[in-house]
Amino acid sequence: MVAVLVREPLQIRRMQREDLAQVAFIEAMAYEFPWSPGIFRDCLQAGYHCWVLVTGHHVCSYGVLSVTAREAHLLNLCVAPAEQGLGLGRRMLSRMLDMARWHDTDKVFLEVRPSNRRAVRLYEKYGFTRIGKRPRYYPTRQGREDAMVMVLNLHPPQGSG
Fold first, then answer.
1. Does the residue 68 lie in any domain?
2. How many domains does the chain have?
3. Proportion of the chain above pLDDT 70, given as a percent
């Protein structure tokens, strides 16, 4: 006899206050220096675009995007460690970029740890380019790590003529 795992369909929806415990748990599992539940709550209250990817009642991934003055900033994108490598990061990033396009933003900015090679590769696949660094941006056990600053131009400049 062969056992078959049946997974409920994945759904992307807006993050709700009821999701914060799961989101904070995933954040703590994924990062050595995680965002606090209060930061996520503040993002919801500020009206940022906060989304979760769920199967049933289980949060697998989440993203937080702020939009101002025709620019978007991807503040957080995370996939639960046990769910990584299944394309969930791509799905969540696609949703975040869809939201940026819906607001007719010109650019999407983000910071990422250079040591997070999987994330850097994902962003590069989507067309993000490196534009600089923020020195000593992230805490580490050994001190601080620079952040790589990346940008995606959603409306490439039109050629003249």
1. yes
2. 1
3. 92
Has 8 been annotated as catalytic?
no
Let me know if residue 5 belongs to a domain: no
The answer to whether residue 123 is catalytic is: yes
Q: What is the pLDDT of residues 34-47, one digit of tens each?
A: 999 999 999 999 99
Q: Is 97 helix (H, G, I), strand (E, B) or coil?
A: helix
Helix H or strand E segment including 33:
none
> Which domain range does residue 46 map to?
10-153
Separation of alpha carbons 82 and 69, rounded Å: 37
Amino acid at position 44, single letter? L
The two tokens of residue 87 are 């394309």
CB 98 within 8 A of CB 46: no
pLDDT tens figures, 47-58: 999 999 999 899
Q: Which of 71, 111, 126, 145 is catalytic?
A: 111
The structure's pTM equals: 0.90
* DSSP letter (8 states) at residue 60: E
Catalytic residue among 27, 48, 62, 123: 123
Inside any domain, residue 56: yes
